Amino acid sequence: MTYIPVVGLEIHVQVKTKSKMFCRCSSVYFGKQPNENVCPVCMGLPGALPVPNKLAFEKAVKLALALNCQINQETKFDRKHYFYPDLPKGYQISQYDQPIGEEGFVEIEIEGDTRRIRVQRVHLEEDTGKSLHGDNDPSGPDETYLDYNKSGVPLLEIVTYPDFESVEEVIAFAKRLRQIVRYVDLSDAEMQKGQMRFELNISVKPDNLPSGELPNYKVEVKNIGSISVLEKVLTFEVQRQSELLKKGEEIKSQTRGLKGMTGETLFQRSKETADDYRYFPEPDIPPLHISDEMISELKSQMPLLPSERKQKYVDLGLEFEQADIFIEDNIRGNWFDSLLEKLEDKSLAKEYAKWIVGEISGQLEKRGESIDSSKVTPEDLIYIVRLVKENQISGTIAKDVINKIFESEEKKSAEQIIQNENLIQISDSSAVEEFVKKVISENPKLVADLSKNPNVIKALVGQVMKLSKGKVNPKIAEEELRKSLNL
Ligand code: ZN
Ligand code: MN
After folding, report:
1. What are 103-148's pLDDT values in tens digits?
2. CA 379, CA 343: separation in Å to the nearest integer?
């Protein structure tokens, strides 16, 4: 019996804003002293009144639109009650029955096929503070310190339906969602800074169970802060649960924690019933209305989203892998787009992509530079590729020119370098003939070997190239050699 995974995801993304969700404190907490950015609102002091952050709200609506959600034009905030030391009010302001968006979807590509993952809901809420246990403190491991800088930072929560049936699908979705979040500028989604966190609901079912039928238990794993750990946890849980079921054991619904970064999980607590958070409408914030005007304004600001952008590149003839590089790395993608805009004839798009992903990226990596601040411009690459295509320079010289652009102290264009250094290939046949004559007279041994081994012609071409410092087109050199030697 084989078992297949059934997975649903909950994702929390920190929304990029200057101030917190319900107060004017700075939402930047990275590298700050503990409790530097706090006030009565985010400390949960009695009588302090929350005021929603307009930018966070607009960004949330924009993301909900990008995830193809239906927008609840009448929306509100609710209190979600639970006690935790880093939640000073004893409740979190979140959204319950009228989230900003519902019933959306995200499309992912798995081996060339498109799959649709349904999004159940998208809502706004606030982040909690942070507990620091023992180890930072010389007085021993018995104390816990609370830092409320993160308390009240805007969070967007996205919940999917349990539509994933393989590890690959979950990972493809996580990456696509991260791209979308970045494209609409909701967040930088830097995972190592905790700006995007995953929660898994995972169970496995026999592969002969009809699709859509769910197992009678689920295992929850919280606080996964990287896509590689997410992948490891999934792989671990699928195997662990499949083995238990194969042995005929029953799996109870439970919450499990991470054991380091290995993907292994540990039992934390069983989950007999759903948590009861005693939600009720937040009395301090009036319901909010999302107008038609706001929706159309946000739609008009919507950039080309990753799947549409990928289609655009594939239609231009790029390989899937090339397209993926430009989609994932927005800076390189934007550079490529600005090059495409300068082209009248886009039939060579794939050729340009090859140079960007290959030689130029290699140079950037070597120098630790980013393409948007490097010396090479789209005009340079357009010029170089045109000369290569017209056989005016060889691929080797093209690479050399790119290297020279990077090395030039004062920015020199490809055209300047090629003209100044006289790098255009010699295609004038009388000039080529001169080189050929010289090579034939200086290499009698090679010429004699030709009758035994026709491949020796390549060596002679090599000699012509060497003599001309790479400026003769090898094809023309070979033609001239064959002509002169009556081959
Ligand atoms: Zn505050
Ligand atoms: Mn949440």
Report:
1. 999 999 888 788 999 999 999 999 999 988 776 556 666 788 899 9
2. 10
- Closest to 180 (Cα-Cα) out of 99, 321, 70, 64: 64
Centre of ligand 2 to C-alpha 115, Å, is 26
Tell me the per-residue pLDDT of 417-440, one tens digit each, with 9 for 90 and over: 888 887 777 767 777 888 899 999
The tokens describing 333, both together, are 């993608």
Query: The pTM is what?
Result: 0.83
pLDDT in tens, 255-291: 998 887 788 898 888 877 777 899 999 999 999 999 9
Taking the chain, what is the end-to-end CA distance rounded to the nearest angstrom? 68
∠ at Cα 42 (36, 45), nearest 5°? 110
Q: Indicate if the pLDDT at residue 341 is higher than 70.
A: yes
Give the C-alpha separation, 334 to 372, whole Å.
Answer: 9
**HSE, side-chain direction, 13 A CA sphere, residue 401:** 30
86 three-state secondary structure: coil
Helix (H, G, I), strand (E, B) or coil at 125: strand
The CA-atom distances, in angstroms, between 182 and each of 77, 240, 455 are 25, 34, 54
Q: Report every protein residue that has its C-beta within 5 angstroms of ion ligand 2.
A: 157
Q: Residue 455 C-alpha to ligand 1 middle, in angstroms?
A: 78
Ligand nearest to the CA of 125: 2
**Across the strands, what pairs with 119?**
104, 160
- If we measure between CA atoms, which residue out of 143, 192, 154 comes closest to residue 13? 154
Q: How far is the CA of 257 from the centre of ligand 2 (A)?
A: 17
